[in-house]
Amino acid sequence: MTLLAGRDYPRSYREFATWFHDDSACAEFLETLRWPNGFTCPACGVVGEPWRESRGRLVCRACRHQTTVTVGTILEKTRTPLTVWFEAAWHVTTTKNGFSAKSLERTLGIRYRVAWTLLQRFRVAMVRSERRPLSGIVEVDEALVGGVEHDGKRGRGTEKSIVAISLEIHQPKGFGRVRMRQVPDASDASLRPFVCETVAPGSIVHTDGWSGYNRLSQSGYVHQRTIMSASDNPAHVAMPGVHRIASLLKRWILGTHQGSVSDEHLQAYLEELKFRHFPHATSRMTCAMRDFRWGLPDSAQSIPKPSSAICWARDLRTSAKAYSVVRREA
């Protein structure tokens, strides 16, 4: 399936405003994405035009099952107009560095709490549930995220948030996919499970000399250690990939979000950063435009996956479990 600009997604904001001028147009677009061959009853599987009742309810003519186009998505049971959802998605996906909740509040003229909740739900949908583990040569290290602490501990013993980072290294140069996760500490009990869940067994895992990585070889990895104190090269030269990711993370949090990221919601911001800066697309603009195509059904597995943009379009039909997590946070 090839997505075409102007047919499957808007090419510009002017075209966006023309397409999605009211909630009915938004709902019609979602129906086309979710049921490209016509409405399919989720209960009995019958394909055909449903009865349309109030509040957007669709009733199957065969079994009388009631549903809506937003059931099972991050839009389920929302009281926010679909036009606001669509415009928020447009701004979030087409801006290079993203939007903070405060910026979205000012841009759309909505309450801060609504803007924050929209962004949190989008971040849940940015995670690909079926993503493959990293493989090949993988650099692994940690980064410390938090404000400036005077007279406090430095390094891994600090009270700041610890983010574990794993990054594929391409030869002779270049980086591949990345995984980031907030961990409680830098011990073996926290770091080894992160590596095991994000890196395929048999891969070459390159770390520094920290003791938290000492048992990686017992988990089926080829462990390469670089002890920084004994190396002629500084850490950012010996392991350039993960240090660039850590630097990008800190600049993004300080720039877009003014450093205002709580420890409780840090993981959601990490997912957004991965999605935003590592789409693996040939064109960032094309990637951003395709981001807007949300709500694709699970059958979209057949779509080529050169970019995480299309993957997000599919994953915005997130599971009810993921939706309920954000709902509790909100």
What does this structure look like?
With 330 residues, the protein is an alpha/beta fold. The protein has two domains: 13-34 and 70-125 and 281-329, no CATH class; 137-274, 2-Layer Sandwich (Nucleotidyltransferase, domain 5), CATH 3.30.420.10. It is 38% helix and 13% strand. It has twelve helices and eight strands. It has helices at residues 13-19, 23-34, 82-94, 101-108, 112-125, 188-198, 235-238, 240-256, 266-277, 284-291, 308-315, 320-329; strands spanning 51-52, 58-59, 66-67, 137-145, 161-169, 175-183, 204-208, 222-226. α5 (112-125) packs antiparallel against α12 and α10 runs parallel beside α11. The two termini are 36 Å apart.
Characteristic key phrases:
330 residues, alpha/beta, Nucleotidyltransferase, domain 5, 2 domains, five-stranded mixed beta sheet, three-stranded antiparallel beta sheet, 12 helices, 8 strands, 38% helix, 13% strand, elongated, disordered C terminus
Provide the domain count: 2
Strand order of the largest sheet: 6-5-4-7-8
CATH domain topology of the largest domain: Nucleotidyltransferase, domain 5
Going by helix content, strand content and strand pairing, the class is alpha/beta
The helix tally amounts to 12
What percent of residues are in strands? 5-15%
Mean pLDDT, to the nearest integer, reads 81
What pattern of helices and strands is seen along the backbone?
HHEEEHHHEEEHEEHHHHHH
The total of beta strands comes to 8
Low-confidence stretches: 281-290, 294-330
Shape: elongated
CATH classification class of the largest domain: Alpha Beta
Radius of gyration: 22 Å
Full CATH superfamily name of the largest domain: Ribonuclease H-like superfamily/Ribonuclease H
- For the record, the CATH architecture of the largest domain stands as 2-Layer Sandwich
| Helix residue percentage | 25-40%
> The biggest beta sheet, please?
5 strands, mixed
Q: What is the distance, rounded to the nearest whole angstrom, between the alpha carbons of the first and last residues?
A: 36 Å
